[in-house]
Amino acid sequence: MRMIITMISIVIIVPILFLKLARDYPQSIFFRYFIWIVFILLILIFLSAIGGKKSDEHYNLYQKPTKKNKNNSHHRT
C-alpha cells in the first residue's frame, strides 16, 4: 500500500515540479537531468519496496511467540 501511495504522489508531484523548473530555472542542472533524477528515484523506491516485503516476510517467519502460545508451549498433551 505504501508503494501505491508513493507512486500516486510522484505522478502528481513530478509534472508540477517539471513545469516549475522549466518556467523558473530553465538553465538549471536539475532541469537538464530531470528525467534521470526521476528515473533513479523510481528505481530506489521500487527496490526499497521489494526490500521491505522481504524483511516483512522474514519477520513473520521468526516472530516471537505470543503469550497464549508461550504459556501453552511447555505443557505436553
SS strand fraction:
under 5%
Poorly predicted ranges (pLDDT <50, ≥5 residues)?
Answer: none
- Helical percentage: over 70%
The total of helices stands at 4
The coarse overall form would be elongated
Rg from Cα: 23 Å
- Number-wise, the strands total 0
Structural class: mainly alpha
Element-level helix/strand string: HHHH
Question: Main β-sheet: number of strands, strand sense, barrel status?
Answer: none
Number of domain modules: 1
Distance between the termini: 42 Å
Short description:
This protein has 77 residues and is mainly alpha-helical.
Task: Supply the key terms.
77 residues, mainly alpha, single chain
List the helices and strands and how they pair.
Elements: H1 2-24, H2 29-32, H3 34-61, H4 67-72
Please explain how this structure is put together.
With 77 residues, the protein is mainly α. The chain has one domain (2-63). It contains four helices and no strands. It has helices spanning 2-24, 29-32, 34-61, 67-72. It is elongated, with a radius of gyration of 23 Å. The model has no long low-confidence stretch (mean pLDDT 77).
